Amino acid sequence: MSTHVIDLIRMTPDGDLTLPETVKARLRQLLERQPGADAFSVYEEGGALVLVPVRESQEPAYIPTPEEIAAVVAHFRAMMRVREAAPPSLDDEFIGGLTYKEYFALSEEEEKALWDEVFADEAMEIEDFSEIKVAPDARVSSR
Predict the structure, then answer these.
(1) Which residues of 103-136 are buried (b: 16+ CB within 10 A; e: fewer)?
(2) Which of 21, 27, 40, 81 could covalently link to 51 via disulfide, CB atoms 3.0 to 4.6 Å apart?
């Protein structure tokens, strides 16, 4: 990730911030790269403010450290090598006709509805099971 100055954000004596158009345009670009994002969560890391695109109604509960991300990526790469598989692309189909990118952009409600739809065919009612009479001291085999 390269670091360069886009422009300056100034604070007025009243405490208001002035955002130059160049900064506003770059912030809009960052939001457009995250489907569904309409706000930024701001947190501090190493003395710098970090902006993370989010849905305004959905603040991230936890933001992993770069070390944690690297450990997870290393784990999954090792698993892929063991399985001799290539990692999926965000544009690969995942479930319900959605790509990984589209799936990760779903709201919590949309995600729940998708999984309800996926498992609707598999749902079994209690009436689908037949009743079997067993002795009160019956045991289930461990094999």
Answers:
(1) bebbeeeeeeebeeeeeeeeeeeeeeeeeeeeee
(2) 40
Q: Compute the distance between CA of residue 5 and CA of residue 20 in angstroms, rounded to an integer.
A: 12
Rounded Cα distance between 31 and 37, Å, is 6
What's the pLDDT band for 134 if we cut at 50, 70, 90? confident
The domain limits of the chain are: 10-54, 66-120
* Residue % of the chain over a pLDDT of 70: 85
* Residues contacting residue 59 through CB under 8 Å, at least 6 positions apart: 41
Does residue 75 have a pLDDT over 60? yes
Which amino acid appears at position 115 of this protein? W
**Distance (Å, whole) CA 96 – CA 117:** 9
Q: How far apart are CA 53 and CA 60, in angstroms?
A: 10
Q: What's the pTM value of the predicted model, to 2 decimals?
A: 0.36
Distance (Å, whole) CA 24 – CA 122: 48
Measured distance CA(110)–CA(91) in Å, rounded: 19
Cα–Cα distance, 46 to 81 (Å, whole number): 34
